[in-house]
Amino acid sequence: MVQKSKHIVIVGGGTSGAVLAARLSEDAHLAVTLLEAGPDQNSYDTMILEPQRAPEIWQHGTHSVVTPMLTQSTPIGALQGRLLGGTSAINGLATLRGLPQDYNHWAAAGLEGWGWEDVVDTFIAAERDADFPASPIHGNSGPLPVRRWRRDEISRAQLAFYDGMLETGNKRVDDINDPSQLPGVGVFPVTIDQDARRVSTSLAYLTPKVRRRENLVVRTGAEVANIAIEGARATGLRLTTGEEIDADEVVVCAGALWTPWLLMRSGIGPGTHLGEHGIRVHADLPVGETMSDHLGTGIPFVHEGERGGIAGPAQVLLVGASNGTDPDYHCFPIAMSSSPGPTLFMMAALLMRSSGRGSVKLGDEVDAEPVVTAPPLPEDGFARLQHAFARLAQWVRSGPANALGCHPAEPFDFTAANAVAQAYERLPISYYHMVGTCPMGTVLDANCRVHGIKGLRVADASVMPTIPSGNTYLGCVMVAERISRKIKGE
Ligand SMILES: Cc1cc2nc3c(=O)[nH]c(=O)nc-3n(C[C@H](O)[C@H](O)[C@H](O)COP(=O)(O)OP(=O)(O)OC[C@H]3O[C@@H](n4cnc5c(N)ncnc54)[C@H](O)[C@@H]3O)c2cc1C
Question: Mean pLDDT score of the chain, rounded to an integer?
Fold first, then answer.
């Protein structure tokens, strides 16, 4: 038996927490306890494993928590997975990284070790890409099996989108994860196995072999109520059952909405806000004040006949650039049903930039769910979405769209002068990429340690100082991989 030097307790066995637990327990000198509020992997029934059924999970709120997110118009239900694997077990499986400039911007802001050259190595190490050989941008030996949907797996609407966008002059991109090929139209890389079944981070990293490690304890159904802080040091935590657990270090991976909630309940957050709730302030920090998200509009569309294909909700996309060169929006049809009959899909246009001025606050009652406010759109948001709408207007008139016979479920004219404003008023959507609620810089240092509190870190979507221009799940894996290396190196 190896003498343990440190007991690390991870709060949240989601996308990032599962990765962190697996990586940290590679070091036999560390004792690692992973606490997850939701159920274990054995609750992964076919609804979770079959990607095309993801909309059912979203609509029925299965294995997830839905928190209202206030917008400038209609509220959006913000989803977060609540089970081992977290949101990676219920998401759209898209496996993108963002762009080099996103991370170079982090490094330029003084966050050493987070520039593109640093993070791209981590992205490569995490993946096992089945479509591309090992190269300076792809890896073949990581835990995450990545491939692109095959044409025979893609639904009829998404094939019509792909073919129609090419017909209307957009460039074909063979590898959306190669920044040099963007902007253009391509197929989403997704984290699935060869049988097209979802592989969450818990399935990829917390394998039976890893879970047999004597220095790793995985507890599910274990919800943390607050972190214990004594004399500016985290000493452990308390579960909602009242059980207390000691720790040398606590790493919070509860996701962009619940991590700030937990920190604030534990006395780490904006002093005035905590004071209003009668919470003793251990560290006065801008927790929850800088939330980013990718927001936009979703126009419901319908076509007659079968959906076709077995692929998940995100299959093909246009990575658009409103200035012609710098990718700044995504457009794609989101499959909304897997049942027979007239097929519904949602035509999404989403900005890949955020004002970062959204927030997560405590409710009137400390135990109530967080109060979440979406960031207002960036000032040029409508103009950028207008560019996307122009592309969609061309697509609607394309041969493949006409052959499919699809049309907006209610009349909608993408070329109308007020089309964007009207759509954002009535049909706002979130990509559910909430990040930046405990960012490196103001709340955390570049090693993700909470300023002013020893023995406490955050390692999930919350830590991102600005939102990357890609889907965020792989970014969370990258954060956990990098933090595990930092902890093991200490
Ligand atoms: C519907 C939907 C679709 C999406 N599609 C995509 C996509 O296709 N591609 C992509 O890249 N991104 C997608 N995203 C976003 C992406 O999945 C998330 O950004 C990412 O998974 C978040 O990871 P995380 O580790 O920060 O949090 P999570 O994965 O949410 O993990 C947090 C974990 O903490 C647990 N927890 C919370 N509070 C406590 C507590 N008090 N005690 C113990 N445990 C607790 C939760 O149960 C959960 O398991 C999607 C998100 C949603 C909601």
Answer: 96
Tell me the mean pLDDT in the region 377-398: 97
End-to-end CA separation in angstroms for the chain: 22
pLDDT of amino acid 339: 65
Mutate which of 261, 473, 483, 484 to test ligand 1's pocket (most atoms within 8 Å of Cβ)? 473
Dump strand ranges (E) for 336-470: 343-351, 359-361, 371-373, 407-408, 428-430, 456-458
The 10s digit of each residue's pLDDT in 211-262 is 999 999 999 999 999 999 999 999 999 999 999 999 999 999 999 999 999 9
Tokens of 11: 């709060």
Any ligand 1 atom below 6 A from CB of 114? no
268 within domain boundaries: yes
DSSP letter (8 states) at residue 323? T
172 CA to centre of own chain: 26
How much distance in Å is there from the Cα of 333 to the middle of ligand 1? 22
Q: At 190, is the secondary structure helix, strand, or coil?
A: strand
Contacts of 245 (CB under 8 A, 6+ apart): 9, 33, 35, 236, 237, 238, 239
Read off the tokens for 47: 């609804």
Q: Which residues span the domain enclosing 263?
A: 6-43+200-290+435-489
Q: Answer whether residue 343 is part of any domain.
A: no
Q: Can you list the alpha helix ranges (DSSP code H) found in 239-293?
A: 255-265, 271-276
Distance 476 CA to ligand 1 centre (A): 9
Question: Which regions of 180-294 does DSSP assign to beta strands (E)?
Answer: 184-187, 189-191, 216-220, 224-230, 233-239, 244-246, 249-252, 268-269, 283-284
CA 49 to chain centroid, in Å, comes to 18
Ligand 1 pocket test: pick from 80, 332, 360, 434 the residue with the most ligand atoms within 8 Å of its Cβ.
80
Which has the closest alpha carbon to 35: 322, 254, 334, 256? 254
pTM: 0.98
* CATH number for the domain harbouring residue 481: 3.50.50.60
Residue 1 pLDDT > 80: no
Q: Is 212 helix (H, G, I), strand (E, B) or coil?
A: coil
Burial class (CB in 10 A: 0-12, 13-18, 19+), 2: exposed
Residue 278 counted as domain residue: yes
Q: What is the pLDDT of residues 286-305, one digit of tens each?
A: 999 999 999 999 999 999 98
Q: List, as one string, the DSSP characters of 58-109.
A: HHHTTTEEEEEEE-SSS-EEEEEE-STTGGGGTS--B-----HHHHHHHHHT
**d(C-alpha 332, C-alpha 298), whole Å:** 10
Band of residue 338 on the pLDDT scale cut at 50, 70, 90: low
